[in-house]
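Model it.
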Amino acid sequence: MDDTKYNLDSKPVNEIKFNYGGQAVIEGVMMRGQNIYAVAVRDPKGGIVIHEQPVSKTLYRGRIARTPFVRGLVGLWDALGIGTRALMWSADVAAGEEVEFNGPIVWVSVIISLAVGLGIFAVLPTALATGVQNLLGLENAPFLVNLIEGVIQIAILIAYISLIARMNDVKRLFGYHGAEHKTINAYEAGAELTPEVVAKYPIEHPRCGTAFLLTVAFVGVLLFSILGRPDLPILILSRVIGIPVVAGVAYEVLRFTAKHADNPLIRIMIIPNLALQHLTTRQPDKDMLEVAIAAFKRVLYSEGLLTAEEAAVPQPAQAEAPAAD
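Modeled.
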């Protein structure tokens, strides 16, 4: 089936009072709502296993959730913890092992991931851009050098994703990412949540985390240009310290553009965001869609939007016993 483009001319049918989100995990999908997040994973026997945990009321329904710039930063940190736990749990389920959803190892993994990410996507582009600045004598052109730094960040991101996308496991992960997007798009359009219907919906979504990374690079160019280009140690320190500010602003930009995606100017602005998502999504199969829908239905059930019967998890049909002689 060909990729379906995101329909920017249509507004969501459902009145969305909460920005549902999610993440692809190993052989499954995590969906996050106002009350819980649910992780659905296809186990080795073909069944769907679901784990649910409550989300912080303070973060998602309190004053923080209504405070611009702060809500994005706090939400992103919480999402890192949730996402890491979901990934570890899904890997154990997919391998048919006993699972442990919490523990210090989760936060150690988050810290290590952040350190590696900072090194690759923040420190390295800054150092390379400074090298270009010295080589070309661009000391008096801080905006241009910051633009070069942003381009380097995006180039490293694209190269990294392109390399890991060659792995079969990552290809399946990207398929589940596509299933997550399609499910949320279908719900926001007021469609029936069945694999056959959800499959018809776009694989892109304007609130995607991939789009957030591109927005971070753009916002960083603008904000860091105010600081100029100090000596390299101070420059790197400013990039690390400035991440919370850039992330908070980028979150608000992404939230605004997603909410006003029907505006002609916004349509043009988000074209790169939607295009970049094709690196991290693939067309899902029916089994992947079933898993994404199962996770999302559990979230909707927790909010009283579905009945227990509607949110029931589908299981593989049992093979019929051979007829007796």
